[in-house]
Amino acid sequence: MPGRSLFSEIAQVVGAEVASTLELGEPIEGEDAWLVLDYLLENKPVEVVDEEEVVEGGECYHVALVVEGSYLFYLLKTGRVSRCVLIEVGKNRVESVLDEVFRRLGKCGEEG
Fold it and tell me: What is the rounded average pLDDT for all residues in the chain?
């Protein structure tokens, strides 16, 4: 793994405190969530593993990315609230970790 960790790179974008929250597996909210998404899309190899947008019945958008083959990034926007998490995962655990994140934060098309 060359250079800095992904979380230290993210700290350059959103600050050390926010990056530390992410590194602990806790969600961050608001504009910081979108800044992290933008950084990952522009600077890292990503694979979209789930994405959905629902407009009727209330605005909702979610996207799940595998980043560098080692991290799961998940962003959920419902109404005006945006939250994201970034969790280190093994290649064979992406689906089970994503299911856990769906249960914890919710996803579009489901109440929760």
Answer: 91
Strand partners of residue 29: 83
Residue with tokens 């579009």: 108
Token pair belonging to 60: 């909702």
CB 70 within 8 A of CB 88: yes
User: What confidence category does residue 1 fall into, taking pLDDT thresholds of 50, 70 and 90?
Assistant: very low
Instruction: Count the neighbouring beta carbons within 10 Å of the beta carbon of residue 57.
Output: 7
Residue 14, H or E segment = helix 6-14
Here the tokens at position 21 are 């929250």
The model carries a pTM of 0.90
Over its C-alpha atoms, the chain yields an Rg (Å, rounded) of 13
- Residue type (1 letter), 52: E
CA gap 104, 102 in Å, rounded = 5
